Amino acid sequence: MSAADYGQPEQLRLLRDTYGDEIVLFDEQDESVAHRIVVEFRYNGTVYAVLQSDELRKEKEIAIFKVSVPDEGEPELETIEDDDEWETVSELYDEMTFPSGERP
């Protein structure tokens, strides 16, 4: 059984193995912005990715996405529409990143 089977996030490398350490996304002005892949993990059967551009890093913010893999294709990012799901994933990231008592 994996960590994800016990309610713990299981770290993965789907995006890194496909794209390297950075992935290019397009902003609202259709300009390309490089994002560092901070961490990828599976939780409750869903794969998530935490990304950070230089601008987000300056603001001490992150971007969180779902990752889907079509039957015959490369991993794709999807926006998390549900606020509760986004909050849960954000808290999991904090737990993975910051020792207890040091969370922002």
Structural key phrases:
6 strands; DUF1292 domain-containing protein; globular; alpha+beta; 3 helices; 104 residues; single chain; UPF0473
Describe the structure.
It is a single chain. 25% of the residues lie in helices and 36% in strands. Strands 1, 2, 3, 4, 5 and 6 form a six-stranded antiparallel beta sheet that branches. The chain is built from three helices and six strands. The model is unreliable at 1-5 (pLDDT under 50). The chain has one domain. The chain is of the alpha+beta class and 104 residues long. The chain is globular. The termini are far apart. It has helices spanning 14-19, 54-58, 83-97; strands at residues 10-11, 22-26, 32-43, 46-53, 63-68, 76-79.
Question: N-to-C SSE series?
Answer: EHEEEHEEH
Backbone structural class: alpha+beta
Helical percent range? 25-40%
What is the first-to-last residue Cα distance?
32 Å
Mean pLDDT: 88
- What would you report as the Rg, rounded to the nearest angstrom? 14 Å
Ranges where pLDDT stays below 50 over 5 or more residues in a row are: 1-5
Number of helices: 3
Structural domain tally = 1
What's the main sheet like? Answer: 6 strands, antiparallel
Strand content range: 35-45%
Number of strands: 6
The 3D shape can be described as globular
Secondary structure layout:
Layout: E1 10-11, H1 14-19, E2 22-26, E3 32-43, E4 46-53, H2 54-58, E5 63-68, E6 76-79, H3 83-97
Antiparallel strand pairs: 1-3, 2-3, 3-4, 4-5, 5-6
